[in-house]
Write a structure and sequence with these properties.
This protein has three helices and six strands, in the order H-H-E-E-H-E-E-E-E. It is an alpha+beta fold. The chain has a single domain, classed as Nuclear Transport Factor 2, Chain: A. It has a six-stranded mixed sheet with strand order 2-1-6-5-4-3.
């Protein structure tokens, strides 16, 4: 069974909240790549950041979900940026796990 959008977002969120990288590392491939708004990050870089942030995700909205890819929106708040922001994410799946994660912040007018 493939990863769902909610399971993927919960993996990120639970890692952020608990600081435990296993929530995220068990749902990604060994060669996972994250593409935030700028640049690329390896799994090691992502786990280092994700276990040391205070971000909280919510308001999940699925646009597309199948065994190959996931796409949707989520909100995020953090002490560094306390205003609620919206992110659009796309995830490429391989073997039921996340292999690639694109994340782009939606900038309000």
């Amino acid at each position: 069974m493939s990863l769902t959008f909610k399971e993927a977002m919960d993996g990120w969120n639970n890692t952020f909240i608990t600081g435990d990288p296993s929530h995220l590392s068990k749902i990604v491939t060994d060669d996972f790549v994250c593409r935030p708004t700028e640049g690329n990050e390896s799994l090691a870089q992502v786990l280092e950041w994700a276990t040391n942030t205070s971000s909280v995700l919510g308001d999940y909205k699925v646009i597309h979900e199948d065994e190959h890819s996931l796409c949707g929106f989520h909100s995020v708040v953090s002490p560094e940026k306390p205003e609620k922001r919206t992110k659009m994410v796309y995830m490429l799946l391989r073997g039921g796990k996340m292999a690639l994660h694109h994340c782009h912040e939606i900038v309000p007018d």
